[in-house]
Amino acid sequence: MKRLIAFVTSIVTLLVAAAAFAAEPLRIGALFSVTGPASFLGEPEKNTLEMLVKQANARGGVGGRKLELVVYDTQGDVTKSVQLANKLIKNDRVSVIVGPSTTGESMAVIPLAEKEKIPLISCAAGIKITEPVKKWVFKTPANDHVAVEKILIQAARSKQKNIAIITVSDGFGSSGREQLKAMAGKKGFRIVADEVYGPKDTDMTAQLTKIKSSRPDAIICWGTNPGPAIIARNVKQLGIKTPLYMSHGVASKKFIQLAGADAAEGIILPAGKLTVFDKLTKNDPQAKLLRDYDQAYRKGFGVEASTFGGYAYDAFLLISNALKKGGAPAQLRDGLEQSRRVVSISGIFNMSPADHNGLDLSAFEMIRVTKGDWELVK
């Protein structure tokens, strides 16, 4: 009898513990560049994630489990990102981290996430974040080699074979430059000029003058604001008529505002479907989600939703989907890796043990700046 009572007691204890665990909120950490030069990335990411967590909790949580969100502003600083990631893991005891916003910060935080076995869902695009695959690291923006391929496909269609590139000397720009040089050669393009600028540079006329003298068929700029906006203005000032491509790193109206509609006119870039959601066919699987996100963001923050905020939205959906496996870090990691056909803002995710990004060419549309707005390139 005593053994039976002890057995029943142990079962009850386990059930009570399981119920208590199920009732515990899932604590999500986030590292975003809310202020500083990369605030155009981090602010919409923070706004979006906070909005989604609030909406989910109002509905009773995800799978009946409430969510707690702890957000820190990294200011785009690599050292601060590592410090705050450590704080999220050690002090705040989060089960998963969303962010950071930039490639450089993400690369710096990765060793800590791997060591502490905490899933990290980066909101940055650099291919080295997830290639080679790291067990605990995922990312929501499509890899930069996908964006490079989209640009080169468009350039080939336009019979632009001699290419000039100008890239920023940070993690995002270095990764893009590496992919541009590797893929251009494979696809039969000739790079006639290869220029670099610093993240804080305020004038790139010297580099663009060299590019102009190389007589390229097209110029590809790889960076995030404000540099590309300055380059767009410098191109206009120098009277360069060569077609100008930008990377997906400027896929928000902020770029057009910084460059000015006149200087931005005609620039082409790969971007997620959110930028042109109102121009998609009704049967596009992302169309309704994109429209609903934009409406909710406008209502909450008074401005249109951006592709960058969409990266945080994607992370939220992936976490919600992964929660089916359980809320412990290892369970979330397994759930993220098994994400299949998850329709989100950036595309349709199909993760696997060999691919912790899960997006392909279909994640991007080629768009052109026309009269201060985006239009699909046909």
UniProtKB/TrEMBL annotation:
Against InterPro entries, the record matches this protein to:
BCAA_transport (IPR051010), Leu-bd (IPR028081), Leu_Ile_Val-bd (IPR000709), Peripla_BP_I (IPR028082)
Q: Which residues form the Leucine-binding protein domain?
A: 25-357
Q: Is ATP-binding given among the entry's keywords?
A: no
- Signal sequence segment: 1-22
Q: Does the keyword Transport apply?
A: yes
Per UniProt, the keywords (alphabetical) are:
Amino-acid transport, Signal, Transport
Instruction: Tell me the domain of life.
Output: Bacteria
The record ties this protein, via Pfam families, to: Peripla_BP_6 (PF13458)
Q: Which PANTHER family match?
A: BLR7848 PROTEIN, LEUCINE-SPECIFIC-BINDING PROTEIN
Q: Which family does it belong to?
A: Belongs to the leucine-binding protein family.
* Protein name stated in the entry: ABC transporter substrate-binding protein
What organism is listed for this UniProt entry? Geobacter benzoatilyticus
